[in-house]
Amino acid sequence: MNVLSINDQAVFSGKTYALGSSTPITATGTVVADLTSTTKTLSLNGANSEVLQVTLQDALTQPASLADTGGNWTGSVSSGVQRLNFSIASQTGILSGTSTTGCTYSGNLVAVSNASAFTSTLNENCPDGSTANFEGIATLNADKNRLTIVAATQAQTSGLVLLLSK
Fold first, then answer.
1. Sign of torsion, CA 62 64 69 70?
2. Are the beta carbons of 139 and 60 closer than 8 angstroms?
3. 3-class DSSP state for residue 68?
4. Do 57 and 40 touch, CB atoms closer than 8 A?
5. SS3 category, 116
6. Phi-psi region of 140 (alpha: psi -120 to 50; beta: other; left: phi over 0)
7. What is the C-alpha separation between 90 and 66, in angstroms, rounded?
8. Angle ∠(75,59,18) on CA atoms, nearest 5
9. Residue 145 per-residue DSSP state
């Protein structure tokens, strides 16, 4: 494990811990970053006479496609007690859904043009008269069979995380 800080002069310092050891080794060196190429790299030179190279592989750089979200999705909340069923229109991103508690849901997904993500709105209306309007972000996994929606109310007094499967 490394606990390092990097200053504005691209010099790092800190401690590194070998697996199984609680004795820290002092680490100092310089940072060499190539953030302009397609494959972005960050190298730490001088850490224990080795070069640590980190390569960014950003899976979220491709544009999102509403067509990938179309269809029926299911999930659960409250430790599986409440089941959710959603339907999403692949052309428009309009979503609707129900829960086993009788709540209904409406909203939409809008593809973000420069990332593999969607902005989301979700309106919840429950039989007891309670309502909530959520805004957030949604992502699909690489296989496009798991949709994750993370959202909060405008006042940020309530939030939700929905893990939905096709």
1. negative
2. yes
3. helix
4. no
5. coil
6. beta
7. 5
8. 100
9. -
In total, the chain counts a number of residues equal to 166
- CA quadruple 99, 86, 158, 125: dihedral positive or negative? negative
Question: In Å, how far from its chain's centre is CA 89?
Answer: 22
pLDDT string in tens for the chain (166-residue length): 455 555 656 566 666 556 556 666 666 666 666 656 666 555 555 555 555 555 655 666 678 899 999 999 999 887 778 899 999 999 999 999 999 999 999 999 999 987 889 999 999 999 999 999 999 999 999 899 999 999 998 888 888 899 999 9
Q: In whole angstroms, give the CA distance from residue 26 to residue 2.
A: 10
pTM, 2 dp: 0.65
The half-sphere exposure of 148 on its side-chain side, counting CA atoms within 13 A, is 9
Backbone angles phi, psi at 36, to 5 degrees: -100, -20
Q: Which residue, chain included where needed, has tokens 């929905």? A: 162
Report helix, strand or coil for 69: helix
Indicate the residue type of 8: D
Name the token pair of 25. 């080794």
